[in-house]
Write a structure and sequence with these properties.
Radius of gyration: 24 Å
Shape: globular
Number of domains: 1
CATH class: Alpha Beta
Strand order of the largest sheet: 6-5-1-3-4-8
Order of helices and strands: HEEHEHEHEHEEHE
Largest sheet: 6 strands, mixed
Amino acid sequence: MTILLAVIVALAAGVAVGYWLPPHGRLPFRDRPRPVRRILLPFTGETISRRALEAAVRLARAEHATIMPAFLARVPLNLPLDAPLPAQCARGMPLIEAIEQRVVSQGLSVDSRIGRGRSYRDALRHLLDGESFDRIIVSASRDSHTGLTSGDLKWLLERVPAEVLILRPAPSDTLEVTAPGFNASAALRRRRAPSPCPRARPRRSPGTVAP
């Protein structure tokens, strides 16, 4: 009787162990799919600090995350929010392409966005209202008249439910990522006048993981 009971217990234990093993049961920790994290990398012009992109790449590699570069476009008050903005897109889309190529060359996933609003903060707010991100990496601009202002950065830190990393390169650090064929003097001329992107549409490149 004791031997029979021991056999029954052993069989039950074997069935239980088999149930919890793959393919029917739980996967070993190293084999379980990791959640896809999302790192937002917003920018407003034809260039972005190389330090900011390098930080995003390092974190994405460590966290198995998708980098999401986002061009922020300002829509004039006299136009509907979804109006085409070809001049701004002509500035921002080449940089998105350059960032995508750099990220994919590192074996990482990229999923680009265009944010639209009445201001850069409003464009960023629309992006954050529509999607969730685990981390936001912002390159602080040296020029108070371009990019996100100190007030925008303060708003990000106080209101956004995500990790926010603000990078301000040292004054001597002028390394930037630019689109091929970028001309600094021509860009400066374009910035002197308000330039009113086809309709915003996510852009994906090889290696992209959809949200």
